[in-house]
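Pasting two entries for a bug report.
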Amino acid sequence: MVFGNCGVLHCPSLEGKGYVEMTSIDADTSHDIVEAVSGKGGRYLEAQIQGSKTQAEEGTLILLAAGDRSLFDDCQSCFKAMSKNSFYLGDIGNASKMNAVLQVVGGVSLAALAEGLALADRAGLSQADLLDVLALTPLASPHLILKGRAMIESSYSTHQPLTHMQKDLKLALGLGDALEQSLPLTATTNEIFKHAKRLGYANHDVAAVYIRARF
């Protein structure tokens, strides 16, 4: 959409125009885009989204933005229509980095939940009881309980595609490599999600990671 045939850069001039990138990309790619867009006189904002398809329909996403502050302000009416909160994080790349960090926490948590449910089942414990107990502990979160129920019921309708989570984990690992930050749990979790993709669950919900843990 930016560098390809008939992309944004084919416009003779971007004076008075702004481009908002709302897909998950790495910080380096975002820097390449801002250089190209600003080189033609345009403004650029990276806007990473935290949330699911259901949250998008409800307008309760979390939006992480970085780049041109004036463009961020100009887009507030659009952001408010789809999100309950939008955060301006400063320099280009910061939104991509923050999104990667949050996806690390989310992905590792889901893999841990899947393994816990699989272990409970193998030990002859009720998975429903496990979720009931979990809901009363400090570890509880609406997201984990929702995904836990989906795992128990084998309900993998796509709210957040598994392949998107795996892509974000890969981006996080790339960031870790660039910063020489060890991410052993993220690396293992990424392999778990990759295996679930190979089993044919790439376009199912992230809860389908349970298939990998269970079998």
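Entry 2 (this is the one that rendered wrong in the viewer):
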Amino acid sequence: MESDDNWLTSDVFKGNFHNDYILGEMIGRGSVSIVYTCLHKGRKKYACKMVPKISAKKVYNENRHLFVIMDLAYGGELLERLAMRGGHSEKDAAEAVRDALAGLNYLHGMGLWHGSVRPEKLIYATEDENSRLLLGDRGIAANPLNSYNALYCAPEVLDGELPTTAADMWSLGVVIYIMLCGFEPFRGTKETEFPSPYWDDKTTDSKLLIMRLMQQKPKDRPTTRDLLLDPWVLGKKSSERPMPITAKHLREFNARRKFKAATLAVRATRRAMAFSNYHEELI
């Protein structure tokens, strides 16, 4: 059997990043990576994820970083756009769910799972009102179960099991819950709760959908194909009534999660730098 590192010798991973691309402004930061805009040969615009070598393999074989080129999505995160509307409806949320399901259905159809479905992974391709919602990559953080990511993890994942397609469906249920009320579900009970008055104006179908997704047993959760036929997801039983109170709660929720994510990113960066310095001293 060939070494796992032999794939690095293929032509895809040869060359110098700066010969092919012009690095632009920073547009995002993860726990172990930074995302920039970049221009290919000074013409076509892409997104570029730059990752320290201590945390991943190489695409462009630079001294200290991995450069990954991908499609550029600059339309903003799902929850931020919903909050900015000042009163989105269930039908708006259902439309976003259909887009997210399209990405998950593609993955699950190949026998793969995402493993990190959460709000910042749902990004609009452009700033246009009718832009597609894209499902971002899961990232390469070494510890996916930090205090923030754990909010979206299925019970079996928190118990140490590997993520599955069913775990993705639980995570999607959490995202839908937040879209409709502006805060995350309480995890201290066996059944999902819909506290008053925040859920009094929501349709029964929306609550039933979330309850189906957040079943304790993975085998009891619907698949992506099941959900693509759900009347609420299709917009047939989702309310068109604006939800201004939910938008207010979403703005507060977005502020909290941004602060928490930034704090975790700083901690992860410090750990990575400390490890890198220690590694260089050994060399």
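Dev reply: Rendering is fixed now. As a check, the viewer should reflect this: The first strand starts at residue 21 and ends at 29.
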